[in-house]
Structure formats: structure tokens, C-alpha cells
């Protein structure tokens, strides 16, 4: 048994070292968007915030009338979009088991961790947030032109799995509290394509250049700093 334990430990170390090497190599390689939009005009930009913790990123969309209208289905699912304190809608994509079952680290289970390293169905998590400036810790401010912003919204919209009637398919009974909901999403979650690579793909749809592979938030942010001059500090 000890021999098997040592072998598994060595295999785990080798896998971690290999993935770290691949991530660092991918960081230096730019991945350009399919469409490069013109830079935003002064005073006419659309500001999006990128929220990052050590393992996950969310995209915070401003709660402007057009954005609230696009996400009006949230009101039908019980979220108070008309609350004057709502300043943004946060959108994140991730693995169903880990995302829905782990609101805090103490809630982490072996099953959820296993799914995150192998394969899992994906979900979208939408939550209401207050108005933020982008200067708060853990936030990055992105300035987009109107066409780039609309392309980002279309990508997010296309990420929902929909019911036969065309509405985003909610996961009933799953939320962290009264101001968030989970929805079925398109695509599968695995070790190579996770929440942060989805965020990077969304940003490329908005015309930004990222690193070739961005499995963790620091790699995503470093790639933007390195390859994309439009990111504002």
C-alpha cells in the first residue's frame, strides 16, 4: 500500500509540475480575438468589471436600463432587479458540482473536487451586486466600445442552456442567498477548460487579447496586462 501511495503522490506531483509548465508557457503566447473592435470613444465607453479571487473570475455588467432589460428573466426568477441598490449583474461560469455545492471552502467535498478535475456539466451563476468603481480590491476595470460590449453580451447570452420556450433554464433550489441564481449552461467543465478560460473566451469575444490558456485568475490578469493595452489599471 505504501508503494502505491508513493506512486500516486509522485504522479500527482508530476501532473502538477506539467500543468504549471504549460500554463507559464501559454502565458507568454497571445491569443488574439477573432474581431478587433475600435477603441472606445472618450466619454462613450462601456465599463465592465472583472472580479477575481484566487481560483475564480466573474464578469460584472453595469446595471444600465439596456442590461437590465436583457436580463429581465432574473426578476421572474425572484431577483429584485428594481432595487435601487443594484449597480451590477455578476456573471460567472463553472462546474455544476463545485459551483453549486461550495459557497465557502469549508463546504468543499471530495466529490465536487473530483468533478472539477475530471468532467462536469456547466452552470452559469448570476448575482446582483452594488455599484462599484473598479478601484476596490479584487476588481479590474475594462473599458469597451459599444460594439465590443454588445459582442460580450451576445456571448454570455449564447452560454445559457435554454428551455423549449427559449428561456434560460434555471436550477431550482440552488442559490447562495436571495440575490443570486444558477442556470444550466452550454459546454462541459474540465481541468483544461474551466471557469477562467470561459472568462478569457468572453473577453476575446469583446475584442481583447488574452494569453493562449488562462486556467487561473492571476494568469488571466497577467495575460491581459501583457497582451492587451485596453485594460485600465
TrEMBL record:
<dbReference type="InterPro" id="IPR011727">
    <property type="entry name" value="CHP02117"/>
</dbReference>
<protein>
    <recommendedName>
        <fullName>Urease-associated protein</fullName>
    </recommendedName>
</protein>
<dbReference type="Pfam" id="PF09601">
    <property type="entry name" value="DUF2459"/>
</dbReference>
Amino acid at each position: 500500500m505504501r508503494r502505491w501511495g508513493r506512486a500516486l503522490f509522485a504522479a500527482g506531483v508530476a501532473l502538477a509540475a506539467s500543468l504549471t509548465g504549460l500554463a507559464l508557457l501559454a502565458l507568454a503566447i497571445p491569443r488574439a480575438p477573432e474581431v478587433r473592435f475600435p477603441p472606445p470613444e472618450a466619454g462613450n465607453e462601456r465599463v465592465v468589471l472583472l472580479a477575481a479571487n484566487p481560483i475564480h473570475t466573474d464578469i460584472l455588467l453595469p446595471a444600465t436600463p439596456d442590461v437590465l432589460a436583457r436580463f429581465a428573466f432574473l426578476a421572474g426568477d425572484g431577483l429584485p432587479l428594481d432595487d435601487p441598490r443594484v449597480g451590477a449583474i455578476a456573471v460567472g461560469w463553472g462546474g455544476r458540482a463545485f459551483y453549486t455545492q461550495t459557497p465557502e471552502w469549508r463546504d468543499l467535498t471530495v466529490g465536487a473536487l473530483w468533478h472539477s478535475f475530471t468532467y462536469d456539466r456547466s452552470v452559469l451563476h448570476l448575482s446582483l451586486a452594488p455599484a462599484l468603481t473598479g478601484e476596490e480590491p479584487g476588481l479590474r476595470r475594462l473599458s469597451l466600445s459599444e460594439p465590443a460590449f454588445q459582442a460580450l453580451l451576445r456571448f454570455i447570452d449564447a452560454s445559457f442552456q435554454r428551455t423549449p420556450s427559449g428561456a434560460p433554464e434555471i436550477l431550482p433550489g440552488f442559490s447562495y442567498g436571495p440575490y443570486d441564481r444558477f442556470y444550466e449552461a452550454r459546454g462541459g467543465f474540465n481541468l483544461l477548460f474551466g471557469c477562467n478560460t470561459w472568462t478569457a473566451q468572453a473577453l476575446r469575444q469583446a475584442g481583447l487579447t488574452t494569453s493562449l490558456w488562462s486556467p487561473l485568475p492571476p494568469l488571466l490578469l497577467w495575460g491581459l496586462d501583457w497582451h492587451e493595452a485596453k485594460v485600465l489599471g
